Amino acid sequence: MRKIKIWWLINVFWILLYIVTTLFLCFRQVDATGAIQNYSTKLINIAIISIVFLIIAICQLVIFHFIKK
């Protein structure tokens, strides 16, 4: 039971990190290289971050499957 609570806390952390990262990418005007961020560039950045977090979510589901056993 304790493992599942820890698993939930880790998932809350990942969700909050995803939300903060996405909001940061949405509201920044210029990236670190000095390139101006337009709408399409922001969408590409968010898509890349979403793919990374999707991979993390799949790993978390696999871990949850083994914890439940």
Automatic annotation (TrEMBL):
InterPro entries: DUF3923. Pfam families: DUF3923. It comes from Companilactobacillus alimentarius DSM 20249. This is NADH:ubiquinone oxidoreductase. It comes from the Bacteria. The lineage of its organism: Bacteria, Bacillati, Bacillota, Bacilli, Lactobacillales. The chain crosses the membrane at residues 6-27, 43-67. The keyword Membrane applies. Keywords: Membrane, Transmembrane, Transmembrane helix.
